[in-house]
Specification:
77 residues; mainly alpha; Non-ribosomal Peptide Synthetase Peptidyl Carrier Protein, Chain A; globular
Length: 77
């Protein structure tokens, strides 16, 4: 989780990603941010995020996003 938080903080250091639960809904993460984030996650965590999983509820919080990463990683094993 800390690795993900580091990535998010690099993008928006002013945001408290440990508490924020509406990153997409409140416009903290815009579409370009999400594209960059997906690229970094795929590189750092060695996963591929399927297009069907690129939905706001997976990107509204670091916790939800990390749960998605873990689920994908488990499926790949």
């Amino acid at each position: 989780m800390e690795q993900l938080l580091d990535i998010l903080r690099e993008m928006h250091p002013e945001t408290d990603f440990e508490r924020e639960t509406r990153l997409v809904d409140d416009g903290v993460l815009a579409s370009f941010d999400i594209v960059m984030l997906i690229t970094r996650i795929e590189e750092e965590f060695d996963v591929v995020i399927p297009a069907k999983d690129i939905v706001p509820e997976h990107f509204n919080s670091a916790k939800a996003l990390y749960a998605l990463i873990e689920r994908i990683a488990e499926q790949d094993d």
